[in-house]
């Protein structure tokens, strides 16, 4: 599989080509029944049954595209939530980058009634990479919902496997992705707070954002990081040849917090961000002072061999993020695929498809469980303000329990002895 970092120099503004999809096969289960002892403790399902709805969110007014044209924009959202009872089991239909359609069996109940609560449920927004789809991290949506969150995951229009013919026109959706990632995240939070089914049950003043790859690029901006494209990077990453057009595109891109003029306009609702292999730091596409001024704690998760977003670039984002609670979780011997669900069987037909799911040296289900553990710790600590969960984040150095003076250290909080190998945590 050719990597985005190798191909960006040939980016071009071309129209997306639809892929003709074959009929979908029976729903498949992607997860094995591992014993709880080998997984981190906060990856255990919560006390709530989980419901899920697919909704459409339409921007109320036309928005500017990368060329400055007024266009309509709408998003498909998959929304998980605490349910009062179980109903028909949900399945998620998607397609690989080559257009292979597949169906996954989830743990949520389709359109189940929402559980009543004394206080509103906080909201978490999930944002996929380029390309992807709204259920790429469905395991996080179901997991957080089982612990009392309403979780809205976005199909970013122009940026999904369905929208982009990645084999022939891999960058057709990239200009829209650069422009809209953070805007879509902010709009999604507002949409959930106003949706008829959810508005009486959520507390949208308490929110978190989770972004993978380009979703992480958006999440860093959503919590206050301002983009800092110059004429050259604006031209390179949008395929623009005209210098005057590149200058206009640069001005359109260089916003903060969902299209705002500066980081001070960050929505106060955002209490935490989880940036999984975020893109952009390797090109220093963020204004350093704005990163220094971020108040929201950001947990960065990165493979130390990430060859798409670049490990040093992710470290650069972490080191320049000013919020005291920000941390960097390094996954040793991992590349870029630290966030997707396990590969469906349809992806095993080619490296082109499989290469966007698996890690060469890691069991993907274990990576998913690690993400569940730290996502819940982050959201419970900072969004729900439950201080006992902060202890799960306050681990430092290596998880390997290498003996010191002949004595083996205790395992990280939430991990059983010997089962946290391959992780490192850095704090401020």
Structural write-up:
The protein has helices at 4-7, 138-146, 174-194, 214-222, 231-238, 243-253, 288-292, 311-320, 351-354, 364-382, 390-393, and strands at 49-58, 63-64, 70-71, 74-83, 89-95, 101-110, 121-127, 150-155, 202-212, 270-276, 298-303, 327-331, 397-398, 423-427. The protein has 428 residues and is α/β, with parallel strands linked by helices. The strands form 2 sheets. Strands 5-6-1-4-8-7-9-10-11-12-14-13 form a 12-stranded mixed beta sheet, with helices on both faces. Strands 2-3 form a two-stranded antiparallel sheet. α7 links the parallel β10 (270-276) and β11 (298-303). α5 packs across α6.
Task: Please tag this protein with its features.
428 residues; alpha/beta; twelve-stranded mixed beta sheet; two-stranded antiparallel sheet; 11 helices; 14 strands; 21% strand; disordered N terminus
